[in-house]
Design a protein that fits this description.
This protein is an alpha+beta fold. About 25% of the residues lie in helices and about 30% in strands. The strands form 2 sheets. The chain has an 8-stranded mixed sheet with strand order 3-4-5-2-1-8-11-10. The longest helix is centred in the N-terminal third of the chain and has 12 residues.
């Protein structure tokens, strides 16, 4: 198994064990910025099979640019069902940076994208989950995966003075199936967290999030939730922020 195969196996494992994510957005004054979804998997390094960890003894610091990867695999992607093609298309704006240093117990993933308008990166977390579909397989074909949950969708908007992050369930039947599949993973996911960290160009005046904390300058808002609770009730995570003028 090559190191890329090991990395993709690890990425898939991320969604099967206790995990801690950070969704971070930096906003510029003109509404442009950068979004990243990061995962610190250092605690799960011990779960990698010894046969695989041998291949990760060398430090791996790699960045995958999905736009290039999709171009390289366009012929095989064209053979997939339209639904799977659309999932892969959503990865196009993103890159994935992976650092694996097994001897020192380090494993970090960060999917990121610059944007002109934050709505350009809607459904970023679903895209992060669907990134596993680009792992290598027999014949080096893209592999459709059930890891991503397209039953829900997340939309962002930022007008310069107001920010919104809204989640809605768009397919109730699919969402119920995802809830059923969560039952077997609750033991692992119970202690997992999902942290929202938003950096604004001006101080935050108000927010609907009661448990949010703020940086000393008032421009960064941090909000941590239980990951399992968020998966069970995604529509409860609707964030509104108003900035000072």
């Amino acid at each position: 198994m090559g190191y890329k195969s090991v990395l993709w196996a690890i990425l898939l494992t991320v969604f099967l064990v206790s995990c801690n994510f950070t969704e971070e957005i930096y906003f510029n004054g003109d509404g442009s910025g950068k979004l990243s979804i990061g995962f610190d998997g250092s605690e799960m390094m011990s779960m990698i099979p010894e046969s695989d960890s041998l291949e990760t003894e060398k430090v791996i610091d790699s960045t995958l640019v999905f736009r290039e990867l999709l171009r390289e695999k366009k012929d095989s992607i064209a053979q997939l069902p339209l639904e799977e093609q659309e999932k892969l298309k959503k990865l196009e704006p993103f890159s994935l940076h992976m650092v694996v240093d097994a001897p020192n117990g380090i494993m970090n993933f960060e999917m990121f994208s610059d944007f002109k308008n934050v709505s350009d990166v809607n459904d970023a977390f679903n895209a992060f989950q669907n990134a596993s579909t680009m792992g290598p397989s027999a014949g080096n074909q893209p592999v459709p995966s059930n890891t991503g949950n397209d039953a829900t969708e997340v939309s962002y908007s930022f007008s310069g003075s107001r920010f919104f992050r809204n989640t809605k369930i768009r397919d109730k039947e699919m969402f119920q199936k995802s809830l059923d599949s969560l039952q077997s993973a609750e033991m692992f996911l119970g202690g997992s967290t999902y942290t929202f960290k938003y950096h604004f160009p001006r101080r935050v005046k108000s927010t609907n999030v009661e448990d949010a904390t703020f940086s000393m300058d008032g421009k960064t808002m941090i909000y941590e939730v239980n990951f399992l609770d968020m998966l069970k009730d995604p529509e409860s995570i609707n964030i509104e922020v108003e900035l000072e003028k």
